[in-house]
Structures are given as structure tokens and as C-alpha cells.
Design brief:
Elements (H helix, E strand, L loop, with lengths): L25 H13 L6 H11 L4 H10 L11 H7 L1 H21 L2 H15 L18 H20 L11
Helix pairs in contact: 1-5, 3-5, 4-5, 6-7
Length: 175
């Protein structure tokens, strides 16, 4: 967990070297702090196994993509066969749901510069297409509308920056 927000609630840090969020991320951190603090999914053997799995994905944005891919679009339930074999479907769903919201909250608490670096790293490694439509549904179902709006506004800005950045992951070819 990271520093406390202005209400004194503990929230996840963007990264271990980032100690000051500024005002931009305070509302997002406070909105999910109760969810994070009270979740059973944040503790126990399932969480430990899951944290090890997620640690293999080097970027936060990559983790968001991965976690959203584990959510069934029709039911909203999260499924991951290896974890389900260890702890069962219900605990797997709770663990992944919590993890998805936690990673999303961390992403929102990062500065735009940190988000850009993370997204650039993800796009370079994955060779994923540079389209906003592909990333619209990465927010967890538990995200508030204002969190979704911030996520989309940040992402639209970042994708435009990456399109036109010389030498970036998706820079326009020179004429």
C-alpha cells in the first residue's frame, strides 16, 4: 500500500519510487480505498499465487489488458483455470475482480508522464494496434463513471502523443 489520501485512507502507490501523487489522483484513490481495505481477495493464498502471476507482466497497462481478458463479457465473472483449480471459482472471481480494480486504481494514480512511459513500453513489447476502441473496455465493472472518464481522457491524450512522438513506439513514418 502507498501513502494515505487526504481522508487518511491507505491507497496503492503508482510505483515504489513515486511518493507524491499530487492532487490529480487523490479522488480516485479515495474512491476505491474502502473496496481495497475491506476485500478478502487482497489476502490469503489465492492472492499470493495471483500476485506472482501478475508480477510476470512488466507493465500496469499490460496487466489491465490481461485482467480484462479474464472477465466474461456476458456474466462479468472472472475466470482463470489454474487459479480456480487451487481455490475454486468463487474465490478466483473475487481475487481477480479485486486485482483488476487495484491495478486500474494504480494506473489512474500515476502521473500522465508515468502512464505514457508504461503505455509506450506495453505497445513496444506487444506490438498491439494503436486504437482507442481496443482499450475502451479495460476498466473494471467496479470503476465509477468519473474513473472511467478520467481513464479514457488520459488514454486518448496518450495515444495522440504516441502517434506523433518522434522515435516513439508508434511514431508516424517520416516522408
Amino acid at each position: 500500500m502507498g501513502p494515505a489520501d487526504r481522508r487518511g485512507l491507505l491507497v496503492p502507490a503508482c510505483d515504489s519510487s513515486h511518493t507524491q501523487f499530487g492532487n490529480r489522483g487523490n479522488w480516485a484513490k479515495g474512491a476505491v480505498a474502502d473496496f481495497i481495505a475491506k476485500s478478502e481477495a487482497a489476502r490469503g493464498p489465492a492472492a499470493d499465487v495471483w500476485r506472482k502471476t501478475l508480477s510476470r507482466i512488466p507493465t500496469r497497462f499490460g496487466r489491465l489488458v490481461f485482467l480484462s481478458s479474464l472477465r466474461d463479457p456476458l456474466t462479468g465473472h472472472y475466470e482463470h483455470a489454474p487459479l480456480s483449480q487451487i481455490v475454486g471459482g468463487e474465490t478466483t472471481d473475487r481475487t481477480l475482480r479485486h486485482s483488476h480494480h487495484e491495478i486500474f486504481s494504480e494506473w489512474l494514480s500515476c502521473t500522465l508522464a508515468r502512464q505514457k512511459a508504461d503505455l509506450d513500453e506495453y505497445l513496444t513489447a506487444s506490438h498491439a494496434p494503436l486504437e482507442l476502441a481496443a482499450y475502451r473496455d479495460l476498466a473494471p465493472a467496479t470503476a465509477h463513471q468519473v474513473e472511467r472518464q478520467l481513464y479514457l481522457a488520459d488514454l486518448e491524450t496518450l495515444l495522440e502523443l504516441l502517434r506523433f512522438e518522434p522515435g516513439g513506439a508508434y511514431s508516424a513514418p517520416e516522408a
